[in-house]
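ingest -> fold -> write
write: protein_1
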Amino acid sequence: MADYLVIVESPAKAKTIGKYLGKKYIVKASMGHVRDLPKSQLGVDIKHDFSPKYITIRGKGDVLKELREHSKKVKAVYLAADPDREGEAIAWHLANVLEIDPSEACRVVFNEITKDAVRESFKHPRRINMDLVNAQQARRILDRLVGYQISPLLWKKVKKGLSAGRVQSVAVRLIVDREHEIRNFKPEEYWTVTALFEAEKQKFEAKFYGYRKGNQIEKTELPNEQAVNQLLDHVRSADYRIVEVKKSERKRNPAPPFITSTLQQEAARKLNFRAGKTMSIAQQLYEGIDIGSEGTVGLITYMRTDSTRISPTAQAEAKEFILREYGAEYYPNQARQYTTKEGAQDAHEAIRPTFVNLHPDKLKDYLTRDQLRLYRLIWERFVASQMAPAVLDTMTVDIQANDAVFRATGSKIKFPGFMTLYIEGNDEGKDEDEKFLPPLEEGQTLRQPKLDPKQHFTQPPPRYTEARLVKTMEELGIGRPSTYAPTLETIQKRGYVLLEDKRFVPTELGEIVVDLLKEFFPQIIDVEFTANLEESLDGVEEGQVDWVKMLDRFYEEFEKDLKVAEEEMKHVTLQEEVSDVACEKCGRMMVYKHGRFGKFLACPGFPECRNAKPILKEIGVACPKCEGGQLVERRGKKRRVFYGCTNYPDCDFVLWDRPVGKSCPECGQLLVSKRSGKGEGMEVWVCSNAECAHKEAPSLPVEQEI
């Protein structure tokens, strides 16, 4: 018979911890929260200090019954939920249900699920931290007050099934505001002139920079074709002479280890993971994976964190690994310390591997493909963060023709340092392209170059990707590590936004809801106000802010806005967008609807006619297998994109990679677009015929030339 009962959230975590603790401990899972506010009512007594009414979550009755039975047979119960606000709240609810005194030393926390960390934590149990509990309660009640009092208004005035979450509403506003910026954007013309030189049998480029005025070079824009023609006339028969060569050495430092937001961003860039998928896989790696003879091991530290702090033990392990595998020159003069951003809770370490010596290559046989890819990303980022900087030789060359100056810049890796292992991605979807110039000297005369003038137009700000939206929310202080992924999921489920080409686009419904909230609930939709609320919640966690007084201050203004909205908000009718596609079952013209996975066509005769079908996105490529068929973008059962023929099922031609509308010069089959190289890589066109090895660089769109 076991002496102690340990309660965690998940069976996977229970299995891992149970192996570490031995026979005296029985480890059970609560399956997450066991109590919550009721779904059928507000569940908050506003008049009595916002007292919450908690009930047992449906389906958790048998779980609680089993936990009660076990708790009566042991000497002590330890509550080992995750080390954050939610985990603390789960422990507090369990203590109440199982009649455990929360002032007893019943709470056990650990940042990593390894044998040493788990066993050490059980030597130091503590009381339940009520400041953490109250911070979670305050957030839950805030969200309930907003959601359960604004949502019915939206149901009545706009459409049933809508919601107006506190954080999600601000996220939708960011997307809507960006869409307005794009619509109102007025492109401005500008030109560039690139000179194509050759020296020492090496070609290189220099761009027009400006005109020399005495000893100064004034940067000069080329706003129109007239300015370009004046420049071309000015340098047509001029000598091109190098007037200045600047050489320098630049150090490039590694990125810090991951926090929740940067992990989601980098996994989106390099692995094409959605935020929810990243957090789900990270949870699996944290809770433990069976890796053969070593048993079940938690492979990474806790993945909900906003701190870049690293423990001295982990730094020492990283140092030993780097010195052994790479050599002394790859380790900096002293261990790297990263500054955690202002306002971060700093409750946990950064996300890192629990054992640096568990190289990703050792785990190929034990992890799924996606688990291994994410683990490798975390492992490489952490090890690289502890390595020496890269050293780059940089060169800037000014080439003068009459008084016009063309400037060439280049850089070359002198010492790779951390870049040997890992280079951070960027939002343009490719790593930095390092290039170097040929040996050039001041006073050197160059042969007449080919001049390449091009017309451009300024571009509007891009729509948000998941990665960029998470980064923006973090920078503005909206939400916290645990909220990013569920917020992005919710705003799509509600039909407020769609993901098109991996970027968020607001729906008509989303724009209407944002406009209504701006008019009647300006505080709820205000970015700064929402960020200040997050800071107040952090203050509750730190014991510096009274959570009831915080809620009281919030509700005083919110209640006034609520009364005005109930009286003055007008009904809004959503106009259905009619398509030119007739319903094959009843003849009505089908309308566009928005679902969780984007737009689709539906019959307006619902519920009498329930016909619905996807919108086929043509890509302008003819089917190579049948006559008259066109290839269209489709999605499989798991939402994976593929390309099939419009004549399906009569024609079964299918490709998993996007065809580019060009045939292979070697075998005649279609070329498709792929990513090459490490991480997100660069685009390359390859033959769709597996037996053909042809590949080529993509043909880029040609900009307008003179």
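write: protein_2
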Amino acid sequence: MSHSVLNRREVSFQLFEVLDTDKLTRRPQFSEHSRETFEATLDTAEKLATDLFAPHNMQADKHEPTFDGEKVSMIPEVKAAFDAFAQAGFIRGRLSFEEGGMQLPETVMTSAMGYFTAANPATTGYPFLTMAAANLIRTFASDELKERFLEPMLNGRFSGTMALTEPHAGSSLADIRSNATPKEDGTYSIKGSKLYISGGEHELTDNIVHLVLAKIKGAPAGVKGISLFIVPKKRVDSSGQVGEFNGVSLAGLIHKLGYRGTTSTALSFGDDDECIGYLVGEPHQGLRYMFQMMNEARLGVGFGSVVIGYQGYQYSLQYAKERTQGRLPSAADPAEPPVAIVEHTDVKRMLLAQKSYVEGGYALCMYGASLIDDQHTMENESDRQKASLLLDLLTPVIKAWPSEYCTKANDLAIQVLGGAGYTREYPVEQYWRDNRLNPIHEGTNGIQALDLLGRKVWLNNGQGLMLLQEEIAKDIKASGEMTKTMATQLENTLTVVNRTFMVLADAMKIRGPDVTLANASCFLNLFGHTIVAWMWLRMANVAADKLAQAQGSDVAFYQGKLQAARYFYHWELPLTERDARLLQNLDETCLSMQPEWF
């Protein structure tokens, strides 16, 4: 049984009907583009993903990279896919024409990347990290460093990583011990170790450019003393020639539950030989620079969760339509032929839940991508600032909500297949394993909850929250007869969110952050579900408007949108009442639990 990498009808709906991406061609930045060039980009991505990425997804999972003490080996299909991706120009797709790029909107690039991640998330990890690392160097590094490292990364000759985590510190970057000693020639000697570095060692490219967080000796304590360094696997001279190894050693490969085709590495810097690093930007500003790559990665993790969840949904849906078993309660006569399991109500429930999670998450991530386009290309500075405020506020949600609920979708896909879903002969178990990393990736979802409630909602005196409510109010006002009940329910939920926020604001002043943030995960769930309910109202409004004139398969498509929206409002949104109650009561059950009581 086979299925398409992604449902092109869904991609087009999100891109051109919900977001109306065509209108971007009226902005100077994208004026040389058209609907046709956007579609051609998606065509290329779909073909490459289908032909070169999807076929070795299961193979890369079964035959993960190996390390013989000298080099890392992996199946050859990974390099063929990476090289084709680079040659097609996707690594530099967002860049301007003057920089050799395709000057594509973020919404179109995100849609294109969805095909690759859906087809093979592990192989896509290598170009994804390279793109994000190259963008950081492009933004913050000196011209000399750009000349030395950027172009080879953009053409796929070098790859990139982000090296943050250390064995003793985990997500607590304030406690990193990697250090940098200045040298007379302006470079630095780097010494330290990093753990869980994706793509940290391989033979896919001529060189690997590590972006390493370290502290210059004598730097301030904590995060204020962190600097950022370019540390290549092999040294690169001023003319761009790749030379000898640079003291970056692979201590070992880490074997993961999923994402097995992406090397996860433990690296040591400066143990076997001198390791030379190049300071990016100003000293002690490294975490600020790295946050650009981290936030890009967080948005990417959210969307990656969506499309992996979508893969499970598509496969389990097709399976449910083809697999016959049992009879309906109203027709239990064993003489009657069995029905396809998609006819059973509980299977419909599981499929509706998956659909509501993955398509709601898809809309959320695409909305985030549209904010990036607005942030960079809106003509009015005030509008650009508004987009930035909204994106800052929503980034923790875009990362965490899909990685939580689209992984649940993969779990439900296994359940739809029954015993077959738990076997390695079917792909749904791998989809779940691959997606299970994403609630941990780029800051655990608990950290995203603390970021949302501890920082993001308060920034700029809560302007982002006020802007968000204004945007939601527009779609509530735009609701028609078929979506009015949803709009009213969303309006009521917003009232609950506001009431909860006011309780927490008072608690922060009176009882301090420990009590206020004790149940931050509840706030993330309440807030995230509210945002996804908004996404479903947006989609339902479009579907209701289109349904009257729809023909052929579009009738069922729009009906499916409306039914999934009803599911989310009837089954999912009411679950936030528990979160609101715990938050408003400042529940201390978890906070007051003592370690010795476990």
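write: annotation protein_2
The first strand starts at residue 66 and ends at 67.
The radius of gyration is 25 Å.
pipeline exit 0
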